[in-house]
Description:
246 residues; alpha/beta; 6-stranded mixed beta sheet; 6 strands; 40% helix; Rossmann fold
Amino acid sequence: MTTTELWLVRHGESTANVLATNAQRDGLDVIPVQHRDADVPLSDDGVRQAEALGAWLTGDSTGSAPSTIWSSPYLRARQTLTVALAAGNSERPFFVDERLRDRELGILDTLTSIGVDRRFPDEAARRRWLGKFYYRPPGGEAWTDVALRIRSFLRDLESTDASGPVLVTAHDAIVLVFLYICLGWSEKELLDFAAAHTVSNASITRLTRRDGEQFWTLDTFASDDHLEALGAPVTEHAGDTDAQPR
């Protein structure tokens, strides 16, 4: 029995999301984060979003409970799940997998796009030449590197006995790479979609397929109806720009 339904959730708004958006708006080179990327916590609004996610998980709108729950090891993703499950009075365990971590930016970490242009103009030019999909910052990852991790995760998922939906809580870049792989997109299709769409915080993306089929169908992208229903804030922070933590 192959997995036939995936629920992809971006973590709730993080403190670094807010700082990065403000730093870019204010024309700063460096985002004044106080934590390494793996340790960035949720903002107060992010906690409220996670609570709303928990209400959705325990409500009738899901149709069925997830068979397994997976998380990025980064704090903001684990905290999103912990808060959501507690809000739903659930003691279900979830699995942490390092392959679901956010894309690593290497020397560009904590820089705004303005800071990259000013401090690493050669890297900015190299990125423009190679394109976002293949560009790998020194010490960091290209989107193709992230795709290798997600392909590995999906192969392992196929070896499990998951009979219901699989819930994955991770990051905007991870959600987009799942779509690239599961929908069989080309580089252009992925980048065009990413340019026109934002994976909002604590949003839900649903993919389904028939048993045994290779490619999936995108049923819902970045739905935030569950946030609006409970009065939780809806936040959209631009994601993987090679220049800010997420």
